[in-house]
Design a protein that fits this description.
The protein is α+β, with helices and mostly antiparallel strands. It contains six helices and eight strands. The protein has a four-stranded antiparallel beta sheet. A four-stranded mixed beta sheet has the order 7-6-5-8, sandwiched between helices. The longest helix is centred in the first third of the chain and has 28 residues. The C terminus is likely disordered.
């Protein structure tokens, strides 16, 4: 059975770079998933304009044939304002989509930043320390040594789908998952050795999202 031991000294600088890398990876995953819905949004934009025009025609007919001031006229005026707003929004769908995408990316960038900070919170509290990962096939035991005292943090099976940077490798339960369920901290040489080990397990290294790059503590 394939075995591997990774030993890496983890300090505040390493964790800062790992957190930044994790934030980018998570944001890529979020945006990649959102991109799959963009075609449905495009269909919605295409439908808004004819529906809004039809609604304005109906409102115009009501106002033309209604002779007395009544609730129907008040409703028609309100509906006319609504359809006019929808028509204005749909008139330049490309600009509206660009604005919405920019807003989404800013919002999800904050989500990715909070997630990365939360996943590495315990590691930051313990730094500096030595991280040791002992792999036996896909079974991993994670030990942390600090002040010459070693303690086991977790033991679990890790394989399947993953993404890697120079500072960490993140594992996902499925290829469609957005947020990783486990993180392995390492340096560049450790990341290369881990990649070779995972290749031997037929693990799937995923591609990052087209838009951009748990520490189970």
């Amino acid at each position: 059975m394939n075995r591997l031991t990774l030993n890496t000294t983890i300090d505040a600088d390493h964790l800062a770079r790992a957190e930044a890398a994790l934030q980018v990876l998570v944001l890529e995953r979020i945006i990649a998933r959102l991109d799959s819905f963009d075609r449905f949004i495009a269909v919605g934009y295409a439908a808004i304009k004819p529906l809004a025009l039809f609604g304005l025609l109906v409102v115009g007919a009501i106002l033309a044939f209604e002779r007395t001031l009544s609730y129907s006229i008040a409703i028609a005026i309100g509906a006319g304002a609504f359809f006019t707003l929808m028509l204005a929004l749909a008139w330049h769908p490309g600009k509206l989509a660009a604005h919405m995408r920019a807003w989404r990316e800013r919002s999800f960038a904050r989500t990715a930043r909070r997630f990365a900070r939360r996943m590495l919170r315990q590691a930051r509290k313990q730094a500096p320390f030595d991280a040791e990962y002992d792999w036996c096939g896909d079974l991993v035991s994670y030990h942390r040594t600090r002040d010459e005292r070693s303690s086991q943090v977790w033991s679990r099976r890790l394989a399947g789908c993953y993404l890697a940077t120079a500072q960490l490798t993140v594992f996902f339960k499925t290829e469609r998952a957005v947020f990783p369920h486990a993180i392995v901290l390492h340096d560049g040489s450790g990341g290369h050795a881990l990649g070779v080990h995972l290749d031997g397990l037929d693990a799937h290294r995923m591609k990052t999202g087209p838009a951009r790059a748990s520490d189970g503590d």
